[in-house]
Amino acid sequence: MLSRRLAVLSASVIRSSIRSKPILTFPSVQFHPSQLPHSSNSHATFIPNAFMDSLGFRAYSLLSLNDLRDNIPRKKPTRKGRGIGSGKGKTAGRGHKGQRARKGSKLGFEGGQTPLRRRMPKRGFKNPFSLTFQPVGLGKIAWLINAGKIDSSELITMKTLKDTGAIGKQIKDGVRLMGRGAEQIQWPIHLEVSRVTVRAKAAVEAAGGSVRRVYYNKLGFRALLKPEWFEKKGRLLPKAARPPPKQNDKVDSIGRLPAPTKPIPFLVEGSQDLHVRSLN
To answer: May I ask which residue range the UniProt record assigns to the signal sequence (predicted)?
Structure first.
């Protein structure tokens, strides 16, 4: 249908271009009846202008209402098991008898030979209980204290280390305190980290300070490092989580989280009115 429309439109454009060109007018030319084999009138005259005037012009649109149709695929889906005329009838492409002709067939079965999953060697091991800690040295903490970015009289938490740039922004499972630059610690400091080496702990305690190993889960780290995220989402800050049994001997206490400041609605007994109480 579209190709026919295009053909008619191209013919109409050609005719309109012919009509737009100036045509030389000649006087009527008399033809002999023998020169007009298709004419029955012996006195017929051929007038070019009259022939050109008889041509009409009709504009055709490339899109019409009878050309509209749904955007459906031309190839129809294969209907298995619906007769021989469907192309996949009778056995539906499964052949005759055998294990794969039925529904039950084991995934990865290769006819009795050793399957690929057993032929390929297994190399390496990934511990699902492994933890990744970000290291930070005592020398860097001492440099930040001397620069005035960290107050040594206050408790230095992992949020303090993140805000001052002592560690990166991505904290997966916590922070490990290392003993690099331990000789620069000449004053008592108090820290809260996830892990600490023996050398770093000895250097901090020798200067009169203390190091505490605290536990945070994924949600607890978000509440510690980005408490504004919960307020933005309209959620309450979570409670501090207890460490799993495998980490009880590796931590000293549960990590402390900021107290929720958003008002919590509650109902008073014997009343249907909604009261608001702020937890501070």
So the answer is: none
Q: Give the chain's largest Cα–Cα span.
A: 133
Asked whether 135 and 178 are in contact (CB, 8 A), the reply is yes
Q: What token pair was written down for 184?
A: 């620069």
Q: What is the pTM of this model?
A: 0.53
> Can you say whether the dihedral through the CA atoms of 146, 147, 152, 155 is positive or negative?
negative
Task: HSE, CB side, 13 Å, CA atoms: give it for residue 114.
Answer: 5
- Radius of gyration from C-alpha coordinates of the chain: 45
Over residues 177-199, the pLDDT tens digits come to: 999 999 999 899 999 999 999 99
For residues 112-137, give the mean pLDDT.
92
The string of DSSP letters for 142-183 reads HHHHHTTSS-TTS-B-HHHHHHTTSS-S--SS-EEEE-TTGG
Task: Please check whether residue 78 is in contact with residue 87, taking contact to mean a CB–CB distance below 8 angstroms.
Answer: yes
| DSSP symbols for 69-123 | -----SSPPP-TTS-GGGSS-TTTTS-SSSSTTSS---TT--TTSPPHHHHSPP-
Write the DSSP symbol of residue 252.
Answer: S
Residue-level pLDDT at 171 = 85
AA identity, residue 221: F
Q: Does the pLDDT at position 280 exceed 80?
A: no
181 vs 48, which has greater pLDDT?
Answer: 181
